[in-house]
Design goal:
With 573 residues, the chain is α/β, with parallel strands linked by helices. 46% of the residues lie in helices and 14% in strands. The protein has helices at 19-38, 54-62, 67-84, 98-113, 197-206, 212-224, 258-261, 264-277, 282-285, 305-318, 352-358, 361-370, 382-411, 424-445, 449-470, 472-475, 480-501, 506-516, 532-535, 557-567; strands spanning 3-8, 42-49, 91-94, 117-127, 132-133, 139-142, 151-152, 169-173, 181-191, 229-230, 232-233, 242-243, 246-247, 255-256, 294-301, 328-332, 335-337, 378-380. The longest helix has 30 residues, at 382-411. The chain binds zinc ion.
Length: 573
């Protein structure tokens, strides 16, 4: 039994995430966690809301709420929406909770001992009317290069040039619109990443199980040269720059930058899990306390790769303490909305809570896994969604389950028949399984989720092809025993289809397996060598068969038209 630690990129607190966020981190992490549990491994899957920083403050402000109360509310919303998609976190924590504050302050202290923290004075724009320093992106004004009037303090969206806030003409506060700004000096802590380059490069070189996308992004950053980064901000909402409850002199009213504390949240969420459930978090994270046998797997969108392969490692490796670092890293491209961006303001795209309003989580889980943005970006369209759900889930899986269980009720007294001997058709089906199941497991181990879903679909389709060959409904008229073999094999395929569906569409899978009465210890993914023949005769002869409720309703054209109207469809010409 292996120990596998899984994290998915922490969703930011300001609002419900869209389907692209789900598809590119949380969902595949869950599919993988479920798979590894079914393989019999000891899995710990943690995630958390990333709650600090200016965007949270501003969102709370816009909602007329205290930032703590706002985060409480938004955390609950995100937690519930994760539950709606059956995301099987062992723990869903918060970066604003005590363990993350403790650990963030710990890392800062240790990095300082190692000479990797420097106190430096910077010049920053201060808004007198807002009574606060403004982060670069919250200063806007006219671009000195192209004259664009709403250029941000870090970059001009019109000409793309990188800017400093002081470059802007006619600068104003994005928060209040006030032009009453001045440049003030402020002291900040910097993480001296320039001293970490060799160490991080050696570590990236030694990481053999990263996909090429992740490695190339890490090397691109390293080749450009690391820069020292400020890890504190003049903000109220965040981890205080303090030790043992006492603020660092000159840093009263300052906090660690969200960039610094958020990834520490992976460790902190594990500590929260241990507090809540009585586990030992250090055995998952400290190689001196048992974590040397842990395999750590991270899931994230491609925009987060540099952060996980360079920035966070600078913190962990810089501490020189025996922390666990990532072993396998799975990065995703973008799920697009008809080739464009999801947009809240333009009402394009579906957000997680809205998706659950119109269909159960399994529909989305299947689509987003089968259409995962793995090798390249993948476009969501209502038509593609409708086609995939109707063919894979309603027809290939749903009809199969329904047809064979109902037939058992009507012709075999609702009991699994024991008569007859398997023949050529059953041998064909067994050979299909002998070949396809190892391929499926290999795709899952490799975290190739599109291929894995395609293999599951191929197994479901092979089951349908088997029934077409065996045609028990035809044989029943002349040879009831021969029909019994087909029905028995078909019912065993129903159970197997349920077993294979578990990581992808867990709610439908549970319905199938619960209705059939497959015990928990018979639901595993430990198939062994050449498992086909035994899987096709695994259920006890004579067991009572109850057809499950209809698993998936077909999506009709009228629904598609209604949803395209409500959430946006193909961009109008
Ligand atoms: Zn410009």
């Amino acid at each position: 039994m292996a120990r596998i630690l899984i994290t998915s990129a922490l969703p930011y607190i300001n609002g419900v995430k869209h389907l692209g966020n789900l598809a590119g981190s949380m969902l595949p992490a869950d599919v993988y966690a479920r798979f590894q549990r079914l393989r019999g491994h000891d899995v710990l899957y943690v995630c958390a809301t990333d709650e600090h920083g200016t965007p949270a403050e501003l969102a709370a402000d816009a909602a007329g709420m205290d930032v703590r109360a706002y985060c409480d509310e938004q955390h609950d919303i995100q937690k519930r929406s994760g539950e709606g998609f059956s995301l099987s976190y062992d723990y869903f924590g918060r970066t604003s909770n005590a363990p993350n504050i403790r650990l963030t302050q710990h890392f800062a202290a240790v990095l300082e001992e190692k000479g990797l923290i420097a106190e430096r004075v910077e010049e920053q724009v201060y808004s007198i009317d807002d009574d606060r320093f403004l982060p670069d992106r919250y200063v806007e004004g006219t671009c000195p290069h192209c004259g664009f009037e709403r250029a941000r303090g870090d970059q001009c969206d019109s000409c793309g040039r990188l800017l400093e806030p002081t470059d802007l003409k006619e600068p104003y506060s994005k928060i209040s619109g006030s032009k009453n700004l001045e440049v003030r000096e402020t002291k900040h802590l910097h993480l001296v990443q320039t001293q970490m380059e060799t160490k991080i490069r050696d570590w990236v070189d030694a990481s053999t199980e990263w996909p090429s996308l992740a490695k190339s992004i890490a090397y691109k950053w390293l080749d450009e040269g690391l820069r020292d980064r400020s890890i504190t901000r003049d903000l109220k909402w965040g981890v205080p720059v303090a030790q043992g409850g006492t603020a660092r002199p000159g840093f009263e009213g300052k906090v660690f930058y969200v960039w610094f504390d958020a990834p520490i949240g992976y460790i902190a969420a594990t500590a929260e899990w241990a507090e809540a459930r009585g586990g030992d978090w250090e055995s998952w994270w400290r190689t001196d306390k048992g974590a040397d046998d842990v395999t750590y797997v991270q899931f994230m969108g491609k925009d987060n790769v540099a952060f996980h392969t360079v920035s966070f490692p600078a913190t962990i490796l810089g501490s020189q303490e025996p922390w666990k670092t990532v072993d396998k890293l799975k990065a995703f491209n973008w799920l697009t909305w008809y080739g464009g961006k999801f947009s809240t303001s333009e009402q394009r795209g579906v957000f997680m809570d809205q998706a659950l309003d119109i269909l159960p989580g399994d529909y989305w889980r299947w689509y987003l896994t089968a259409n995962a943005p793995e090798g390249s970006d993948a476009a969501f369209t209502w038509e593609h969604f409708q086609g995939l759900i109707n063919s894979d889930l309603a027809n290939v899986l749903g009809n199969f389950v329904n047809r064979i269980t109902k037939y058992t009720v009507s012709k075999f007294d609702a009991a699994l028949p024991s008569a007859g001997t398997p023949g050529e058709d059953e041998a064909w089906m067994a050979a299909e399984l002998d070949q396809r199941l190892p391929a499926l497991v290999a795709h899952m181990e490799a975290m190739e989720f599109r291929k894995a879903a395609a293999e599951v679909r191929a197994i479901w389709a092979a089951g349908n092809e088997y029934l077409t060959k065996a045609e028990p409904w035809v044989k029943y008229k002349s040879d009831v025993d021969a029909a019994a073999v087909g029905v028995r094999t078909g019912l065993n395929l129903v159970a197997l289809f349920g077993i294979l569906a578990q990581p992808f569409i867990p709610d439908a899978a549970a319905k199938i397996l619960d209705t059939l009465g497959v015990p928990d210890d018979k639901r595993s993914w430990e198939f062994g060598d050449k498992p086909g023949a035994s899987l096709l005769d695994a259920l006890p002869h004579g067991m009572a068969i109850t057809p499950p409720p209809v698993l998936f309703a077909k999506i009709d054209d009228a629904q598609v038209a209604e949803w395209a109207e409500r959430f946006g469809g193909a961009p109008s010409e």
